[in-house]
Amino acid sequence: MYTVLVVDDEAIVCRGIKDSLEASDLNISQVLTAWNGYEALDYVRMESVDLVLTDIQMDGMNGIELMESILSEKPDIPVVVISAHDEFQYAQHCIRLGARDYLIKPVLLS
Q1: 32 vs 107, which has greater pLDDT?
Q2: Is 31 helix (H, G, I), strand (E, B) or coil?
Q3: What's the pTM value of the predicted model, to 2 decimals?
């Protein structure tokens, strides 16, 4: 069973992804949500997180800074970026930093 951390400063997005993951038949035991990068780092440091799904644009610590922090502290945790930025440079930068994937909002969960 896996623990997934969803990071987005939009409550409706966090809730939607969380609900979709919990309703799926994936082997997920827990879906945690964080509203910003600082809160997400606390979860990563204190919980056993198996996957992080993060937005890029957030107040305080953005998703790229969060990803850099996660990869420097716990490089085994995969990070998937979910963003409204559809410019290639954002995706390229995230992949170069080590993101496992870059998804464009709105993400259709089926």
Answers
A1: 32
A2: strand
A3: 0.90
